[in-house]
Amino acid sequence: MFDKARAFNAARPELVAEFNELTAYLCFDFATNELVPEQVAKWQTRHDEPADGMVTADTIAAAKARRLNGATP
Fold first, then answer.
1. DSSP 2
2. Domain ranges of the chain
3. SS3 42
4. Is 35 helix (H, G, I), strand (E, B) or coil?
5. Contact 13, 32 (CB under 8 A)
6. H-helix or E-strand containing 28?
7. pLDDT tens digit sequence for 8-57
């Protein structure tokens, strides 16, 4: 189900890196050294974003807004 998200995210390492930093690596699996799209989708759901597991410019904007407002990731 999240194969498209994995491919999408793999093609955008700069967005993934920024998302990881903004969210304190909440969706990152250190055992596999990969972003987990299922966890990204959960994060997106909690923050009223489309829960597709893809780290887009909108996902980054939501993460930045939370950080600017002092909210936890």
1. -
2. 3-68
3. helix
4. strand
5. no
6. strand 28-29
7. 999 999 999 999 999 999 999 999 999 999 999 999 999 999 999 999 99
Answer yes or no: are the C-beta atoms of 35 and 20 closer than 8 Å: yes
Which of 42, 53, 59 has the alpha carbon at shortest distance from 5?
Answer: 53
**Which amino acid is located at 63 in the chain?**
A
Q: What is the pTM of this model?
A: 0.90
| Residue 1 DSSP code | -
CA atoms of 66 and 25, how far apart (whole Å): 15
* Residue 67 parent element (H or E): helix 57-68
Record the tokens describing residue 8, joined without a space.
């999408």
Q: Which helix (H) or strand (E) holds 40?
A: helix 37-46
pLDDT band at 1 (very low <50, low <70, confident <90, very high): confident
DSSP 56: -
